[in-house]
Description:
Blueprint: E1 4-8, E2 23-29, H1 32-39, E3 45-48, H2 55-62, E4 68-71, H3 80-90, E5 95-99, H4 106-120, E6 125-129, E7 133-138, E8 141-145, E9 153-169, E10 175-180, E11 198-213
Parallel strand pairs: 1-2, 1-5, 2-3, 3-4, 5-6
Antiparallel strand pairs: 6-7, 7-11, 8-11, 9-10, 9-11
Amino acid sequence: MTDKALIITGGEIDFSYQKSEDCRMVIAVDNGLAAAHRMGIRPDVIIGDFDTVSPNLLHIYENQSDIEIIKLKPEKDDTDTEAAVCFAAKKGIKEIDILGATGSRFDHAYANMFLLKRAMEQNIMIYLYTGLSKIYLVHGKREYCREDFFGTYISFLQFDGSALGVTLEGFKYNVSDFDFDTKKTYRLGVSNEPMKERASIVIQQGYMLAVESLEDKDK
């Protein structure tokens, strides 16, 4: 079994998500408990300041001795989701899927993007699932198999500064030793597509946000 966890937090939930069999831990964050309950996913840990979760729903799980309840203070430096990631890291988790990391609160969604970098610096890989997209960070080199793609499109956007010396191979739009800076070329990585069975990205310096996307369901 791999050191993998699922975190369900309180944003927009991809209810089509299927929890993998190698998931070792499920953490429900505040009102993410409602989504977990609806999906029939039983959490191992419930964490948050509990300002949004239904007290009646929380009470159902409070009486189950094998579920750990962690109540946070409302006044704190980190978000509830960040606290959940830190908890998972202390338990030795190396890969995390997060549901509900985006939604109507743009400030929370934006802050969650930086969780990807903080986790990667601790050798933890985080994947955010939004329903139409799978979002994660790339640093160094990453290889792809076209049949494993989440959707049709993939965008690579420099993150927290420029991404220098970028090489893309096997995509519709390839580059070689190209600099994605924050002034002129920041938009050029949007809506690429894998064209070969194998594709890869190499980044000599910096980070890129990868967004694998399905075609809009309304089209």
